[in-house]
Every structure is written in structure tokens, then in C-alpha cells.
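for the record, two folds in this file. i put them one after another cuz i was lazy. first one right below, seq on top, C-alpha cells after. the second one comes after a little note so u can tell where it starts
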Amino acid sequence: MNKKLLFLASALVILLGSSFNHADNVFNVIVIDAGHGGNDPGCNGGGSKEKQVTLSIALKLGKMIEDSLKDVKVIYTRKSDKFIELSERGNIANKNNADLFISIHCNANDNKEAAGTETYLMGLHKSENNLAVSKRENNVILLEKDYKTNEAYEGFDPNSPAGHIILTLMQNAYIAQSAKFASNVEGEFKTNTSLKSRGVKQAGFLVLWKTAMPGVLIETGFLTNASDRKTLSKDSGQMVIAKAIFNALKKYKKGK
């Protein structure tokens, strides 16, 4: 992608995102996506597998919503250890006319000192680290046998930086709402958990690419960091994380 096209893409994202009216955040359907699953374990650390941690947090979060927000329908992309294609995760949200999409993940880094939470919305990469995270998550499509011929991906190349930038254009209409919810999530992590908040970030994620609603991808901590892993691997720690996301959701629903 040349610099002129990149500039135009950035301008379009900013223009459409800033003009979107989000006076209220009334919603009836939420889709919770537990990252990875089945033959895709995600990242690992100290015996903990991302696919298991994300599923546990997703189910806990869903139950909190079902128990306390009776007017909201919860739909899960998976409720067991099964592999769901990235394109299908977004399709599930679109087919059910979801009002919010939350994809839950765990992070990893060769630097074992790296720790904390990050909440992503679709946007242009602001750093090489953001690009690295999106590449790691998007590389799941390499496990899909026919990803090169799957029309849903429109020829996306997981090894191309330009391809990851193009992904950002699909979510521009919902950027303001997504950013608000993401900010709530990181605020709750910072205030009500022992995890370090690394803030709200932007990057191109396939799982968010074609979702026709506000959506975020939450990296709940680093399985490669001993302290984060201690929280992520325990039921009590997972409950704290789910509660933080739930509190952020309630604030978002009230337009805060």
C-alpha cells in the first residue's frame, strides 16, 4: 500500500468515525467470543492454554449478563473446546443482529516481563507491537484449510502489513462506540483488578473485520508473565476479570 492510499484510508477512518452518532448505547444482543479453541490452543504459558482461559472468562461474563441484565440476550461463538473459523465468529454476530461484539484473548511475549491488559478496536497500527499482536491473532486463519479461497477474507494475506491496514476500513462507522467501551474496560481493569492496564489500542483484527456493530478484542493479560498467569489461571482471577468487563458493559449501556 503506497503512502497516498494510506493517508486517504486514515482520513476516511477519522471522518466517518467522528461523524457517527452514538447518543445512546441501548442494546439487546451481545456476542461473546472466546478466542481460539479446538486444534488452535492460542498462546501458552506455565501449563496454561489461552483457549481454556478465554472460554472460562467468556462463560463467567455471559452468566453475569444473563443473571443481571434480563433485557440483554447473550450469544456465544463457542461454549466448548471447538475450533471456530475467524470469519464465522463475525458472521455469528451479524446473523443475530448483535449490538456489541466482545472477543476475549490472552497475550504472549518473548519478554517474560511484559504484563498487563490491552483492549483493542479496529484502527490503524500505531506501533510495531500492535501490529505484532494482530498478526499473532490473525495467523489463526493458517489453520483453516481453505482460507485462501474463502471469499469472506477477500484475499487477505496474514503475512502482509498492508493487508492488516486494509482491515481497519471495515469498522470505521463504529469506532467512537468501540473506543468508549474499550476505555471503560481498561478503566475497570486499572481500578478493580491487580492487573496493569496497558491502555486502549488500535490494530487490524480479522475477527473484528466485518462485524456490523461496535466491537473490541480484549487481551486479558500475558500468559507468559508469571504474575498475570497466576490471575488468569485461577477461577477467582477469572471472576475478577469477568466482573471488570461486566462493570464496563453496564456503564456503556447507560451511555457513560
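(here's the note) second protein begins now
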Amino acid sequence: MQRECDNALALATYIAENHPEVTVNYPGLPTNPYHEVAKKELNNGFGTIVTIRVGSKERAFEVMNKLKFAYRISNIGDTKTLVLHPASTIARHNSVEEQESSGVFSDLIRISVGIEDIEDLIADFKQALSN
């Protein structure tokens, strides 16, 4: 679990610092509105779930299709990194208004970060997010 949390923070930090066109949501980032609460309430890390918004549904699928390490599976908490497009899967039966009110947008990718080598994960996301 510690490795997954460390990897999630490193991946979220890399994306936030190197891809300004991507919106990153992760409580471990100082820019996250819940960062101070998370620092107080969470021990040994900020969790393994990172979400990113990439601009459009088409771009979300383009990024997911380019990833080599991440599996496209709806689970969370696996030792492998998993990605999902929530608007097309777990939230697809909700209206757009319901999705958006729960933080699900058409350009959102949910990442459940695993225990892979962080340099490999960062390299994979780097190539997938590159145009």
C-alpha cells in the first residue's frame, strides 16, 4: 500500500508539473483544495486514486489507448495500475447532470496506481500524454 501511495503522489506530481493542459485531482498535491485536510486526516500517504481531465472524451480514450502498462479495468486497489473512463462505464447510466455533480466528466480518466517502477509509469504516461 505504501508503494502504491508513493507512486500515486509521484505520478500526480509529474503530470501536474509537466502537462499544464491536464487537470490533476489528487489530495497529495498542495494545489488540491482538500490537501490540508488530507494531511491532517490521512496517515502514510494520500491514497492510490488519481484523476485527470484531458480536454475531451476523444482525448481520454486516445491517452488510455496509448498506455502500455496500465490495464483498462474498473477495479481499484490492485497491484497493477488500472485506468478507467468513468463516464462510459461505472457512471454511464447516470445523466450528464448527475455525472458532473459527482465529479465525473467526459474527459476524466481515473487512475488506480499500482506498484510498478515509478520511472516506468511516468515514462508511460509521458508518452501517452504527448501529442
